[in-house]
Amino acid sequence: MADNQKTVLPDGSVSRPPTAFEYGYDKSFRFLTFFAGLLTVALLVYIFWKLGGQAAPAIREYGLQFLTTVDWNPNKNEYGILAEIWGTLYSSLLALLFGGTLGVAVAIFLTQGFLNARLAWVFRLIVEMLAAIPSVVYGLWGIYVLIPAIRPIAGWLHDNFSFIPFFSTPLAGPGMFPAMIVLSIMILPTVAAISQDAFKAIPMKVQEAAYGMGTTKWEAIRKVVLPTASGGIFASLVLGFGRALGETMALAMLIGNSQQVTLSLFAPATTLASLLASTFPEAGANQIGPLMYAAIALLVITMTVNIIGTIIMNYTSRQTVT
Fold first, then answer.
1. Using alpha carbons only, what angle is made at residue 83 by residues 81 and 84, rounded to the nearest 5 degrees?
2. Which residues does the UniProt record annotate as the domain ABC transmembrane type-1 (predicted)?
3. Domain region containing 175
């Protein structure tokens, strides 16, 4: 049979043509993956279509002014989400700054020989367990533990450095700072897990070559390991940032839900996700359109961040290879 024919190659290895079953299996797999990709695109288009249909009246009525004003007053039929856009981006960037840095540091600590294998496994398990804690539990912990703990520090910073915009208001309760800390903890497992995979993917001979040239451990990490794993690290930061942009319950409980644009870390603020979560259950008919408009804005922001992040990640990966 032709399907069972074997050919001896010059190097002595034996090969054969694929059987009809293997050929059909390969074509079926290709078709299923292609169909899955089309289904994903179709689902995204459907989500935009459904949201856009309900948001269309608000888009026609408010236009781009909806994105540049801070009023949200259903009684006067005045709506604007500038404060929510600012709070979403500000809290997510702050969380990425602290949580992303800590996540990469944890990944370095767990993969670069600072701990023995068994102890590193225990720490890795603890970090991964942070991702399993429900968002509402983080919110309750922030309200009853974190805010009382940081209030004295926030008060001292405000009393002594109130001329700095970041400390211009006192921390009376929920605000940007406690929300940012909790958000940093929530994105830490994502950043740490993906960064660990990036570090583990580096061939050991690369680090051995660095040590052979006389570098110390920290020099090898800083000049060899981090640049080589930069693509994976950046991917972890993009995913962490995306998680922060869409976080809902913990921020709704901790950020204060106040319509204002400010740099102060201690002032209450709001986000698009918390606006949707806190307003939609009791929304009247006149609020559905603006809320759907806000949902589209959040979706566009999240997609834009991920697209830009993917482009930069691919660029940095090519630069690393060359």
1. 65
2. 85-309
3. 82-321
